Amino acid sequence: MIAELGLAALWLAAALAALQLIAGALSQRDESGELASLARPAAIMQGLLAGFAFIMLLWLFAVTDLSVKLVADNSHSAKPMIFKLAGTWGNHEGSMLLWVTVMALAGSLIALLERRLPERTMQATLAAQAFVGLGFYAFLLLSSNPFERLPEPALEGAGLNPLLQDIGLAFHPPTLYFGYVGLSVAFSFAVGALLTGRVGPDFARAMRPWVLGAWIFLTLGITAGSYWAYYELGWGGWWFWDPVENASLMPWLAATALLHSVSVLAARDALRAWTIMLGVVAFSMSMLGTFLVRSGILTSVHAFAVDPERGTFILALLILYVGGALLLFGLKAGSVAEGERFSVTSREGALVFNNVMLSAILGIVLLGTLYPLLTEAFDVRVSVGPPYFNPVGAIFTIPMLIVMAIGPLLRWKGDSIRRIKLPLAIVAAIMAAALLLVIVMGDYSILAMLGLAIAIGLAVGSFMPLRGRNLRRVPIATWGMVVAHFGLAVALFGMASESAFSEERLAAVEIGQSAQVGPWTVTLDQVKPVAGPNWTAIQGDLSAKYEGGETAILKPQTRNFWAPEQETTESTLATRWNGQLYAVIGNEAGQGRWQLRLWWKPFVTFIWYGGILVALGGLLALIGRLRGDLKRRHAKARLEEQARYRDEEAPV
Amino acid sequence: MTRAVIIAIACLLGLASIASAQQSLPPAPLAYEQLQDPAQEAAAQDLMQTLRCLKCQSQSIADSDAPMAGDMRHQVRSRIAAGEEPEAIRAWLVERYGDYVSYAPTVSETTWPLFAIPLMLLVIALFVLRGRFRREAK
User: Fold this and answer.
1) Contacts of B5 (CB under 8 A, 6+ apart)
2) A163 contact residues in B (CB cutoff 8 A)
3) What does the domain layout of chain A look like in residue ranges?
4) Contact call for residues A407 and A351 (beta carbons, < 8 A)
5) What are the phi and psi torsion angles at A237 (to 5°)?
6) Which residues of B touch A301 (CB under 8 A)?
7) Fewer Cβ in 10 A, N or C end of chain A?
8) Residues A282-333: pLDDT tens digits?
9) What pLDDT does residue A161 have?
């Protein structure tokens, strides 16, 4: 019964999306028509119904209803409740339902709250939102029905892959989906504004919170994913330029560019067509990411959908939306005026530079990710990895970071370098000094040395906009920018430091013997077997002494899971403010010796602290903007009231 | 990323059949042992990070527990120790396993767009910026 209720709600939601599309589209011709008033209620109901369907699926997983195919295939009655619930989106159908639900709820929110835009633009936006939604409803209902019943209930569920039973993985898909879906809303706004040709500051203010929100979630998702790979893989790498990683990085790059151009549009009514274009590109990257990870084109744990029909379906949606939007852009872009003008040395000028560089970086990541897939279709296998992405990306990243350190100091519209020459000189001097210092310190790779110097200069530069201001009166959004830019400097410092200063030690030691890595002396105290609920392990007890000072106890393991049979290495970390000791125990090396893999990674944690700071900066900006919007709304309401009051007072 | 983890594990187990034969042999001596000379070890490390573990996906041989990655690390270290140039070792591996083994694509008939397109992007970027700002300056 529960499953049937869910399915019915899903069909109804799809029907309402169709109604929303028709109402929104017809109202473009006849604004006063009765249909026009239907789009908003349809969007709100659609969100509620999709939410209801998702709750029904959660319910089925919570009670482990084994007559439902999805539950029987992916769950187990003896699983802890949190993983039963998280298992709802730990599979293809459930994760697509989550996507649709988040998207429908986002549509409800804009239908309910967004009143700044001209009604016609809103109608077009809701129609675009419904159009995107319909594709996903069709995908779910026609080829991935999550509520399908089994002819006969299963006796017991097949269980969830033990690797997916991790608290991080319970939150990983929703985090990225919030990011992807936030960009779909930005896309709908862009299409709506493109259809009506009404692109201006109001449009930018309506779109901005969605871009910011999406960007915060993507930032957190990427940061968490990177840390997870770092400690789980057992070799200390934190970024592999793996296609799945790139699939989340590309929307982030596009969203970062969009975030900055939408700010220019909101503040200065400039960069209109460019902002619309980026809105289209950002969502395209989300769709591409979904396609890459979900179509089975990459063999991966993300590719639940190995069924080629499903991959084709997503590819068709990708082509339809992206192609359609680009066509629309091509037809309509001419009607969108370019907006206000500005000079090279202005805030806008710096932001345009940032946008062009980000787009180029995005182009390179896209190329490096898709090119091997493309050549594979012609039976030529090539690998594109760090030796390609790092230097080629740096061509655009380095100028961008340098401009980023000084851009926020420039005034809008027009400014002169002479006005900011003091902070400019300070930042340049610090960068030069830092560069000189690392060159003297040792023989490191050029990119690492430049990274360290730029990180230090950028860290100082990011606080320059606060110079000479009363800190209590600095707007929250400005704090957001400062924190996010500083966070990027921190992350960059961590990356460069890890690359330049990491020390590795592979050693085969007997019990009681020590190995040296960086400032640490690591002693193998004992090796013993230990057992967990579904694994046995060899555990090495290590005591690590930092330069004769404090001692840390580390207990790395090699685990053997028995159902299904898997061997994993559980690395352990000793974290200090200035870096991490990373320890792994390997196999027995004969003559009573054990393999130890040890790394000392100075300041490696800064990578993820930086990522969190960047997200925090985004959050501050979001809070600041929303508060500003609310104030503006109150002021407008007060003005209207005063006007009405005057009208009543005035003699006829 | 999750995937990288799974693949790492798959590397260990997916190979169970081959591995069971291989694991009965001890790993090659230099698979888990560093070279004495730090400069040589650093050169080997730099090279290993740019070679693909053929049994895994998206991992270098410096990041993998797969027996084959271990064998390749042994090859790299012993050849570096014998005084071979890193690029010569790469060429030898490419000859044996194909372009796929190297993460550093070189310009060839099949890979030239990887280098031409970034150049094009650079030119386009400069062009866009120049166009934009020259018009404003007027």
Assistant:
1) A163, A228, A229, A232, A233
2) 2, 5-6, 9
3) 1-162, 503-602
4) yes
5) -80, 145
6) 2-3, 6
7) C
8) 999 998 888 887 766 665 445 444 566 777 788 888 889 888 888 888 888 7
9) 65
Which residue in chain B has the smallest CA separation from A501?
Answer: B42
pLDDT tens, residue by residue, A264-291: 999 988 888 889 999 999 999 998 888 8
ipTM, 2 dp: 0.81
Chain A nearest C-alpha distance from B87 (Å): 13
- From B3's Cα to the closest Cα of chain A, the distance in A is 5
Phi-psi region of A476 (alpha: psi -120 to 50; beta: other; left: phi over 0): alpha
Residue A137 corresponds to which amino acid?
A: Y
The share of chain A scoring above pLDDT 70, in percent, equals: 95
Number of alpha carbons in the 13 Å side-chain half-sphere of residue A179: 32
| Domain boundary assignment for chain B | 2-104, 106-138
DSSP letter for each residue of A75-90: --TTS-HHHHHHGGGS
Pick from A240, A356, A384: CB nearest B114: A384
| Distance, CA of A97 to CA of A141 (rounded, Å) | 10
Measured in degrees and rounded to the nearest 5, phi and psi for residue A200 equal -165, -170
Fold exhibited by the domain B2-104: Helicase, Ruva Protein; domain 3 (1.10.8)
Q: Are A465 and A577 in contact (CB under 8 A)?
A: no
Is it the case that residue A483 has pLDDT exceeding 70? yes
Mean pLDDT of all residues belonging to chain A: 88
Nearest-neighbour CA in chain B from A208: distance (Å): 24
Hey, is A507 helix, strand or coil? strand
Highest-pLDDT range among A269-278, A618-627, B121-130: A618-627
Task: Test A590 with B26 for CB contact under 8 angstroms.
Answer: yes
Helix ranges restricted to H, A378-517 = 386-406, 421-441, 446-463, 476-501
